[in-house]
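quick one, 391 residues, struct below
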Amino acid sequence: MLAAYLLEKEGVNVTVYEKQDYIGGHCKTVISKDICTELGTVFSFTKQIKELLIELQVDYTERFAYRNFVDKNFNNVEHILREDVLLLLDELARLKIILNKYTASLHTVNYGYIHEELLIPLDKFLIKHNLKIIGQVIAPYLSSYGFGDISNMQAYYAFKVFNTDTIYSFIRGDKLLFIDKGTSHLIKKLSQNITDIRYSIEVNNVKVIGNKVKVETPFDSDHYDKVLITTKLPRDVIKDDLYNQLMKKIDTNPFITCAYEVSNKNLVTTYYKANLGKKGKIQFYHTFKHCNRTILVTYAYGILQKDLVKEITKDLEKSGICVKHLITTNQWYIFPHLKEHNLTQDFYQEISENQKVSNIYLIGSLVSEPAIANLYLSVKNSINEVLEGHL
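---
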């Protein structure tokens, strides 16, 4: 949506194909009597997104988000032990020095060349460098935001998402940016500026023919000068060997959200430390409040099924939460990435080089960390390159 908005603002004719009957992906908000509940993206951590919100006249607030942690018995526990705080500060100082070695790999907006030492799982990287406390600090966030367990996530992806600045921001408890009327309001503002959006239209064939790209759906086809792909497509949809190989290798994490109305009034964002990365278990919950109402949204790995929702509900009740009723559920497939046996040092560089000579190219979370602020920068950079003819 951002790519289409930026292009159309420059006078480029754009068509958006959307598989679902609504636009916006993870920016999905449900509204009930003045309470906006996010089912996907909740907040932004950095300041870059502000310029878009101001441009679109979208109201936002910045506020502190209090965090709680519970153990396997649903009892409140500290994130880390008080006596480990000094050890953490020492580790963070050492980590900053360690990561300086990988500046060429980590200090880019999009994925690129990967230093070979960053190809190993994060837990092995932390053990190698004796960074025990940092693992305890970032594991709940990585797992809860859909990136998976630190034993299955390569250090490269982890430190693209959680660099030292981000870690310090969480430790300090910096303010987070929330959109007042929900992220769907941002999508609505973007869509009001886009002429051609096609809903419930799944693309099933993308092929370069001459100097044009043919896009086919089950109902019709059109030809375009360029096609930007922002999401994982089924294998063999793209008739390009390199891109098609990528689509075959990309994995996503199945993730669900369940929204409940609850009776409890004083709940804060809570992380379940014993469940990190486990399928079918609550990773964390976040709450939305207005007047005397509280809506709680849980996040868990797995495929949306009745038994899984029942287990999540039971665990909430074991946590002392009085559930009034389930409002809605949502299935997501998030964090496009390559597993350890598929990820090579130059994989993303090959994609980048191919895009310089192709009319088909990938943008967004396929080639960039899926944090909303970074995606904003990534898409802006890609569109600038498109307009300058570099892609």
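The chain has a mean pLDDT of 93.
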